[in-house]
């Protein structure tokens, strides 16, 4: 690695729901881990109420942040293309079609 500081790259996600990886007999909301006292993976928070419109707003915010940063970050990271089991995917699908991809196009065009 070089001696330069690592760049700050904003990360935008269309959602997060790890509950498919959780044991069904553990009630929601998940209790803290008996080992650590924290809400450890996979028993952590889930993102709810996400929409293509909210995602587009987050993309626009990230774009403005990058454009206004004097360090000129070279990217905005989008999570995730196909993380189906965790509810984070940008691939076209039945419920929203291509709305998330169209939101990206509008925000970064």
Name a few traits of the molecule.
two-stranded parallel ribbon, 109 residues, 2 helices, two-stranded antiparallel ribbon, 9% strand, alpha+beta, flat
Description:
This protein is an alpha+beta fold and 109 residues long. It has one domain (11-108). The chain has two helices and four strands. The chain has helices at residues 52-68, 99-108; strands spanning 11-13, 77-79, 82-83, 88-89. Strands 1-2 form a two-stranded parallel sheet. The protein has a two-stranded antiparallel sheet with strand order 3-4. A hairpin with a 4-residue loop joins strand 3 (82-83) and strand 4. Helix 1 runs parallel beside helix 2. The longest helix has 17 residues, at 52-68. The radius of gyration is 17 Å and the shape is flat. The two termini are 32 Å apart. The model has no long low-confidence stretch (mean pLDDT 87).
Structural class: alpha+beta
Order of helices and strands: EHEEEH
Shape: flat
Largest sheet: 2 strands, parallel
Care to count the β-strands?
Answer: 4
In the predicted model, the low-confidence regions spanning at least 5 consecutive residues are none
- Tell me the strand order in the biggest sheet: 1-2
Q: How many individual helices?
A: 2
Strand content: 5-15%
Q: Which whole number gives the mean pLDDT?
A: 87
Number of domains: 1
The percentage helix is: 10-25%
Spatial extent as radius of gyration: 17 Å
Q: CA-to-CA gap between the ends?
A: 32 Å
């Amino acid at each position: 690695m070089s001696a330069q500081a690592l760049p700050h790259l904003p990360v935008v996600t269309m959602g997060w729901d790890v509950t498919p990886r959780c044991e069904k007999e553990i009630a929601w909301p998940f209790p803290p881990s008996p080992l650590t006292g924290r809400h450890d993976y996979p028993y952590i928070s889930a993102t709810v109420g996400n929409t293509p419109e909210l995602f587009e707003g987050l993309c626009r915010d990230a774009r403005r942040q990058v454009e206004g940063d004097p360090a000129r970050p070279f990217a905005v990271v989008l999570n995730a293309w196909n993380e189906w089991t965790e509810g984070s995917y940008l691939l076209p699908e039945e419920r929203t079609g291509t709305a998330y991809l169209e939101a990206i196009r509008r925000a970064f065009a």
